[in-house]
Write a structure and sequence with these properties.
Shape: rod-shaped
Strand content: under 5%
Order of helices and strands: HHHHHHHHH
Number of domains: 2
Oligomer: single chain
Distance between the termini: 223 Å
Structural class: mainly alpha
Radius of gyration: 59 Å
Helix content: over 70%
Largest sheet: none
Amino acid sequence: MPPQGPEAAELRDLAEQTRGVVGDLRETLGSAADERRERLGRLSDEASQLVESLASQVANELSQDLARQQEEQAAAARQQLDDERSGLQSEREAFDAEREAWQAERGAWQAEHDQQASEHEAERAERAQWEADRDAWQAEREQWEAVRNQVEAELASQEQRLLAERQEIEANRQSGGDADDVLYEKLELAVTERDQAHEKLGGVEARVGELTAALAEATGRLTAATEVEQELGTLREKFDLVMTDLQAHREHVAALEGELATRPETAGADPAELEQLRQDRDELARQLEEQAHAGEPVEPSAEVNELRARFEMAVEDVRQLRTENEELRQKLDSAPAGGDAASEGDGWEAQKQRLLASLSDEGDAVEPERQEERATIAGTLQITDEVVAEKDREIERLRQELEQAPADNGEAVVDEAQAALLDEDEVIQAERERLAALEAECQEKLRQAELELSVERAKISRAQSQLEEQQIELETLKGACSTGGESKRRWMDKLGLGNDSK
């Protein structure tokens, strides 16, 4: 049975109030829980939006950095291509000027070559005439030698006859016969014939002397003509070598013009094509320099030396321009590394710290999707750190190499590389072998010419020796004849016939 009375009514009122308070508390707690859940949802959405915005901001900054770097590299490549094109255009103009000068000098050399050829033909004809005259003089000398031998034989026979008559006179004188007058007449006749023979012998000796002088003069002319012909041959070989070098230079210039004509005019050229063009230009300069040095043993003329000096000056200008371009390229590469890298590094570190702080504020009690997003953001941050660190290390390494590498060492490395390229080039090796073969051939021809000249000199020396021996024989014969005449006159004086003979 329920309680009744005033206390029971108060209890019932208190219970109703308690139920109302409990209901209000329940409603308040439910609305508070709803508001808290709604607030948590809003916070989660805001955190997701913040992470997405930060990730997109990082991605945009990275893409902007990459785009800016690519744009700077493209601008540098375009500027470098423009500089290279300007340099190549200048080199083309210089090569055109040198080609025109080479063509003019080639015309002068060709005219000089034709003149030398005509002079050589004239000298060859004159030499042939000299040889014909020498042969004629040689034949005439042989004829006069035969006449001289005949006269000498006649003199010998007359000497023998005089000796026999002398013996006969001596015998008659001892016997005292009457044939003295007859013998005296015979003796006078023999003396007259001897004098005539001496006069004839003198004429023969004079003619032989004239022929000897003419032969010596012809020999001297022939020797001079031989020397002139050898000198002309040497000059012709030098001219051929110079013309060969000039033709090679013209071919290289024509090849360079063809490459310049076929190059595209766009600003964004391929760096590989630019590098190939630079290598072709360096190869052309090295080949021209090699050919210029290969022509030194030929003793070139003053015009060739002047051309070589001009070419070396042009090569030196090209090297100086290459050095300046390399310095500008190094300055351009090292310029952004000083300030922009540091500022970008500081900005990235600040952004990274902010992202890490926002992630740490979320705590560990997050949803799996959010954990995956946090792992992705952390991986992106790590990759970005590695890229930035690699960039900093590369910049520092390049700066150290620039500070430590001396200028002369760079030039030595370049020279060694050029020498290695020259040694490996088949065209240059073939050209060197051809020049060596030409040099060996010239030396062989020179040795053969010296041998022929030595043989000719030996022949001339033998001919001169024979002439000297013949002159000595003539002098001996003349002395013998004069001695025989004096003895005969003394013998006639002894006979008492000296006054009549005089």
